[in-house]
Design a protein that fits this description.
Layout (H helix, E strand, L loop, with lengths): L1 E3 L17 H4 L8 E3 L1 H4 L9 E4 L2 E4 L6 H17 L4 E4 L10 E3 L7 E3 L3 H8 L3 E4 L3 H24 L2
Parallel strand pairs: 1-2, 1-5, 5-8
Antiparallel strand pairs: 3-4, 6-7
Amino acid sequence: MLVSACLLGAECRYNEKGVLDERVRALMEIADLIPVCPEIFGGLPTPRVPAERIGDRVQTRDGSDVTAQYEKGAREAWKLAKLFSCSCAVLKERSPSCGHGRIYDGTHSKKLTDGNGTTAEKLMEHGILVFGESETEACRKYIISKKYAEMKNFMDECSDL
């Protein structure tokens, strides 16, 4: 499963911070975690000027258009998801790249709006389930049910031999 690297403590967020989220770390007990930072993959520095999504564009607080970098980062994250056969991801909530369901509204005023970040959107387009860090329990249940189904199919195939 893909995981936002900042949720595993990597200091790659816009403010050069990362926080090890214990709920996310605990998923290592049941799945292989593939850390990604689409902003870094897209060529953005750390630290960097905060950015927010405005429709299909991503713009920094100082007005620079960084859409191309966010789109490149999304493509690179998708390549890894495909390479590692990921069926789900746990991504940083509210981020213009990783946010799922609710993101900052583009006014740089901390207001939220319905929407997805560029990477979350790209992964969902390819059938990958996206969870935010506050949804790790739902993610855990999904992984366990997927593993159970795979095990059941395997056992059924074995009993047919």
